[in-house]
Write a structure and sequence with these properties.
It is built from four helices and no strands. The chain is mainly α and 80 residues long. Helix 2 packs across helix 3 and helix 2 crosses helix 4.
Length: 80
């Protein structure tokens, strides 16, 4: 997992909860700009920020690190 996966999971969870970036950022205590960068994998959140994000989203922090393998394409050659 890299920060792009983490950011994607945060964004998907935020959208499932019906929150805007602004709403979540205010609850977490960070700027909308920083949260947007985290969601796009351009910024690395601190552990405290991740904890706050999980709390605001009402999910366990570890769930932010779970991603679906289905998101990744696997190339298999015909003779393999």
């Amino acid at each position: 997992m890299d920060f792009n996966d983490l950011g994607r999971t945060i964004k998907e969870t935020r959208l499932e909860k019906g929150l805007s970036i602004k709403n979540l950022a205010e609850g977490v205590g960070v700027s909308s700009s920083l949260l947007s960068q985290i969601e796009r994998g351009l910024a690395n959140p601190s552990l405290n920020t991740l904890r706050s994000i999980a709390n605001e989203l009402n999910v366990p922090m570890f769930s932010l690190f779970i991603y679906s393998e289905a998101d990744y394409a696997q190339v298999v050659r015909k003779d393999e």
